[in-house]
Amino acid sequence: MSTNPTPRTRVVREPDRAVYDRDAVNRILDEAFLCHAGFVVDGQPFVIPTSYGRNGNVLYIHGSAASRMLRNLDKGIPVCVTVTLLDGLVLARSIFNHSMNYRSVVILGTATLIDDPVEKIAALRALSEHILPQRWDDSRQPNEKELKATSVLRIPIDEFSAKVRVGPPIDDEPDYSFPTWAGVIPLDTRVGAPIRDERCQREFPEYLRNYTRTPK
Amino acid sequence: MSTNPTPRTRVVREPDRAVYDRDAVNRILDEAFLCHAGFVVDGQPFVIPTSYGRNGNVLYIHGSAASRMLRNLDKGIPVCVTVTLLDGLVLARSIFNHSMNYRSVVILGTATLIDDPVEKIAALRALSEHILPQRWDDSRQPNEKELKATSVLRIPIDEFSAKVRVGPPIDDEPDYSFPTWAGVIPLDTRVGAPIRDERCQREFPEYLRNYTRTPK
Description:
216 residues; 5 helices; 37% strand
């Protein structure tokens, strides 16, 4: 499903890298779990890293990760949520044509606090499942006091765009003879060997064994 | 060297994770090379991923990566530059105490366009060296036309804070008996096997062979 960009989400630089397709955007959102949320206080932008979850066309973030934001949240505040997957360094012959391969999504919207306790717990579950599927059911779930101490924000995924660069460097034709190595150095997120908590006696469970962010 | 936080950079949530030491902040800035730059247009925050370089107490970013920002840049605009290194998922017994290990830096400041051609080329070189040391000298360097087409922004690293979480999960005492695996799943950036451009004849050079973001 393709969606028309608004003047605010239309990609200005390198428009050939723009993606406005909702399914493609969702694939990026589902591979990552860290976003950078931007909001404004007294004219000053703040950008805070935080995890997120997705349920259909709604993004959820923990309010607790952005208390500066929450202090300014009454009927909702304008936010920008940006998600970036870095896929590689692109080494061209010229410095000017060096680049990166990446997939990024920018969502503009209004973040509102979730009051409804049923939506709140569903949002927290979506957040947990987004980061680590099956973990929710294998953990001690939130009690009433913890739910009260946690704020969850709801951001509709309505106004968005993505930007994607893939493939080899593109040099100016005369530069192809320049004597240097050119190509791509891939980058991705590696999952390391688990470090068991010293007070933990349990076996490392199956659902964690093959944890990866890369979709099958 | 430690620096006092301003009311704007004082860490509000989990203040025990706050770091205001400039050397510690510089180590985070030097390990990463991707930042998320936030700025405001008509009250709406925008957050754009882009690479950066550092020279002493100055951060440089490509203006071309944020043309929406540049269109609004006359005498400088307020920005927030956030750099995040994600080090692991922290699996506690309770959902509530799940966390992440991370190191992040938030810099507030005013971004100004570099006019001076000498500073501009020094900034571009700092950017290049920051991402990939020795690459600048092994590339076809920018010509006058390319320099004109590139905008570089200067952001002083004066008002900043960092937030760092390390170590195992911290559970509420009664939860330690909850029957689940607990510990840390480390995450880091992996450098993959280089993909040579099909029109490249050169050997893969020594300075790229051991490329890593992890400091020795």
